[in-house]
Amino acid sequence: MTAILTDRAIDLLIGGGTSTGSGERIPVLDPATGATVATVANASVDDGLLAVEAAAEAFTHWRKRSPRDRAEVLRRCFDLMVERSEELSVLIATENGKTMSDARGEVGYAAEFFRWYSEEAVRGIGQVSLSPSGTNRIIAVQEPIGVAVLVTPWNFPAAMATRKIAPALAAGSTVVLKPATETPLTAYAIADICREAGVPDGVINVVTTRKAGPVVSAMLHDPRVRALSFTGSTEVGVRLLHEAADQVLKCSMELGGNAPFLVFDDADVDSAVDGLMIAKMRNGGQACTAANRIYVQRGIADALLERLTDRMAGLKMGPGTEEATECGPLVNRSSVDKVADLVDGAVRDGARVLTGASAPDGPGAFYRPTVLAGVSAESQIVSEEIFGPVAAVQTFDCEGEVVAAANSTDLGLSAYVYSGDLGRALRVAEALESGMVAINRGLVSDPAAPFGGVKQSGLGREGAHEGMLEYTETKYIAVAW
Ligand code: NAD
């Protein structure tokens, strides 16, 4: 077992060595109890710049390794992650609060990025063509971009890290990862696994800090950095795009969502409820792809609400690490307060509570699985990411009306459509302003598919072949031969 999985005082990882940073420690809390489970080092601005230096030095070697060589290292990362999946799942459930079943799902998904990009590493394919004038050849090749700064959120601490690290390394680039302070242990554990798998020192550096603003800003202004890949809120993403503009960095931004979940009268109600439970409750509702606005056509609304309420009311709440738990705590108490405010506001605006709508007494950041019916389109719960176990349901009458409602947001990450008529489902999928649409499914994520949003949900794509291009630059060579 790797040391990170058992150590309880983790230091920064810079150039293959560890550093205590500023000396101050950041506690990592178990959201089910509020107890400190470990501490991580707190990086200063200088530590961030040392990490950039280490990544820049490592880049000079890593970029020269053959694609096959890089592929084999990534494949070993996949094998080791699968081997360690149970320990990693416990670690994620402990620091994030998600259920063991969600944690296992995340580790499997996260590991797949190493496998997928081990396969893509040998496909950095360019192109050769004759110019239209016939005077010369056009050669276009993909080169590794260099040092990338990766900033990740707390809700998928493994998958958000590997979705960036694997394509960057496959492309021949090197990285400095700054994970969220709520769930940093998983990031350090993954870096440790990568080292064991043969990733050379300095190719992956990890810095945790309480001063995310100044540390990330300093890195983005260091001329050795050429790319930023950020996953997190739209608010912070917009700020980082401004910062990245100073050095004209290549930016990949995976930002907030406000996913509509549409169920038409001709859908199979049981399968729609199954899909909704996944789309709503994965990670306790704390997912950028979570079904945030649920629109049900009037003819089946009563049947769907009844089944959904039974399922939500029957979920067993408890610490994520307990095998029987079906709904873990939220990441911290302030998240509980935010969810409670949104629910209270919706109820004031006329929503009916079918189950839940309160936080239990006692320790831990718990909020009861909740179903609200008759939610007003004007309520704040409709325009904001709920990020909690709350199904906010509205009814609709016709297709045009629901498409207009679904598109009435600045965000456009994922959307869900349930219908027994594939023609209708595809027509609606095309009309939705969203980077990803799931038809008769509650899950969109797949390492082999391009993940990303439109409008203020982001720029660029992660996963698929496109995900690797975020860490390359195209070079065109004009040749007369
Ligand atoms: P967040 O924006 O608060 O934080 C994300 C990361 O940015 C963390 O590492 C944080 O420390 C860092 N950060 C915060 N302020 C910063 C600053 N000023 N400068 C530099 N870095 C800073 O988001 P969160 O609360 O950790 O995560 C939830 C959000 O992430 C939600 O909006 C969710 O939709 C989004 N998300 C999006 C995707 C996606 O793929 N589109 C996936 C997961 C989460």
Describe this structure as you would to a colleague:
This protein has 481 residues and is of the alpha/beta class. It has 2 domains: 2-255 and 457-479, Aldehyde Dehydrogenase, Chain A, domain 1, CATH 3.40.605.10; 259-446, Aldehyde Dehydrogenase, Chain A, domain 2 (3-Layer(aba) Sandwich). It is 39% helix and 22% strand. It has a 7-stranded mixed beta sheet, with helices on both faces. It binds nicotinamide-adenine-dinucleotide.
Radius of gyration: 23 Å
Helix content: 25-40%
Strands, count:
23
Describe the largest sheet. Answer: 7 strands, mixed
CATH level 1 class label of the largest domain: Alpha Beta
State the helix count. Answer: 15
Bound molecules: nicotinamide-adenine-dinucleotide
The low-confidence runs, each spanning 5 or more residues with pLDDT under 50, are none
Q: What is the overall shape? A: globular
| Oligomeric organization of the protein chains | single chain
* CATH-scheme architecture of the largest domain: 3-Layer(aba) Sandwich
What structural category do the secondary elements indicate?
Answer: alpha/beta
